[in-house]
Amino acid sequence: MKRNAILSGILAFIPFIGMCFSVPLWDRIDPVVFGLPFNLAWLIAWIPLTSLCLWGVYHLLSKRNVVASASEGQR
Amino acid sequence: MTPGLIAMAVIFSIILVGAMIGIYAGFRREMTLEQWTVGGRGFGLILVWLLMAGEVYTTFAFLGASGWVYSRGGPTLYVIAYLSLAYVLSIFFLPKLWEVGRKASLHTVADFFQHRYGSKYLAAFVALVGMLFIVPYLQLQLTGLGIIVQVASFDAVSRTAAISIAFVVVAGFVLSSGIRAVAWVSVLKDSLMLIAAVTIGIGVPYHYFGGIAPMFRELIQTKPQHLTMPGSTRDMGHSWYITTVLLTSIGFYVWPHSFGSMYSAKSADTLRRNAVIMPLYSITLPLLFFVGYSAILVTPGLAHGDLALLMTVRKTFSPWFLGLIGGAGALTAMVPAAIMILTTGALFAKNFVRPLFAPAMTDNAVATLAKAFVVVFTAIAMYVAIYSSATLVGLLLFAYSGIAQFAPGVIFGLFWNRVRGVAVFAGMVVGVSCDLLLIATKHDPLLGCNAGFLALVLNCAVTMTVAMFSARERNAQASLFAPAAEKTLV
What is the least distance, in Å, from the CA of A64 to any CA of chain B? Predict the structure, then answer.
């Protein structure tokens, strides 16, 4: 349970690194990807990646809930 | 028929259809306060998704983001980042907030402060700050509607008249419906918006350059510095980008109107699933960026960047298509404006007037007062919209800098029992006044950082310091998830 909370925290932090804190690394025009400047292409790529991370978080969080309610039931 | 008339006719037909859907959706339900503000807390995944999407993709995204791409360039990329990152935070906070809201039947953000900290003065202060900073956001929507009418009428309707028309349309729409209506109009709005974004996002670059890649190739040759940060600004570099993304993604879910649509969800799980799919909705946003980038080459020299998208559409397509885009744009302004006005009415009547001046007021009287305030409030925003020249994105950033000051009160309130009303109040007063001071004295950005973010850091520091030094005794309100018998609502 604790492990899931930590994992979901880490998973949620990944998009912040990708889209926010790493900006000096990807804010440039080259290499041009599919005709788009690199910074724009990078951010577009991170939109589905963010959803993917959140999907992971969702599963970790709901698994935690299932475990919690199951242990409550046993009591 | 002149081109202006054709475009205007199409726009107003779309608005009319939207209004009719809205009125029909709200028609056969009795409008209690609970129904009007949070839709009886019975919305499923799809409706909540529509409602929340409807708030995000406002005129700001439609005209404002493309306008900033046109006039500022690189820094506008923050918009793509913050919309996704806000949902990352929401997956942790919203379900918990929802849980509290359901157990204590809360409607507004101020209700939450009242419930958690047990002070009606703190709640009234939150209501006041919320109303204050929703004005620029509402002003943004009215300005956007005004721009649409002005451009689509080929400048036959003046700006002032256009904004007045916008006021009548929005206030009428809100008074005749409620939040359920708003959700259903979002269906029409989002489908139109999607069609609009795809057609012009791909159509405009193809028409002038033969594709998106050739368009960027030409931009990279002629204006390479515009595409990266700080773009065509002096002081919006990487530190500005990081602080702005943080400020806006934190501020995103403490918006007073987000509370309303969040509480309308059927379950906490609905909100979690919603957070997973919401970022995908913003995949259409870059299409609007493409129009802004094309406009740099197609319609250079516009006095106001916010005109860029519509002027380019007007130059490229036939009048009826301009009308279709304008109609989609009009709905993207009306829907969020309606939600904001509904929220403000509730804040004013329920959290400000009733607790401070008229404790004996019934729920029905509160609902009536809220509706009366809707008209006054929208008129204030209309007045400001007519006499201001701020850019749409500038307005949104100003609004965010103030609203984000609620975040410490909400987050600490949920996760840190020790924090009391005094600490939150002190932090908020410091944060809000620091923010207003920096912006009024034109110190935004300060040292390359977003002024609102600096104010938020100060706010957190003050809240935490006061919380550390205040008495250790356990607050009755502190345990949010206590059994109902233990809970005392002061």
Answer: 13
Question: B272 CB near a chain A CB, below 8 Å?
Answer: yes
Give me the amino acid identity at B165.
Answer: I
Torsion sign over Cα B441, B446, B448, B452:
negative
Delimit the domains of chain B by residue range: 3-391
pTM confidence score:
0.82
Which residues have a Cβ under 8 Å from the Cβ of A30 and sit 6 or more positions away? A38
pLDDT digits (tens, 9 = 90+) for B139-182: 888 888 888 888 888 888 887 888 888 778 777 777 776 666 67
Q: Cβ contacts (< 8 Å) between B282 and chain A: which residues?
A: 47
Please count the structural domains in chain A: 1
**How far is the CA of B342 from the CAs of B20, B130, B360, in angstroms?**
18, 13, 22
ipTM over 0.85: no
| DSSP output for B155-180 | T-S-HHHHHHHHHHHHHHHHHH--HH
Q: A 32-51 residues with CB below 8 A of B?
A: 32, 34-37, 39-40, 43-44, 46-48, 50-51
B3-391, what's its fold?
Sodium/glucose cotransporter (1.20.1730)
- Give residue-wise pLDDT tens across range B438-480: 777 776 677 777 888 888 888 888 888 888 877 554 544 444 4
Structural domain that includes position A20: 2-74
Residues of B in contact with A47 (CB under 8 A): 80, 84, 279-280, 282-283
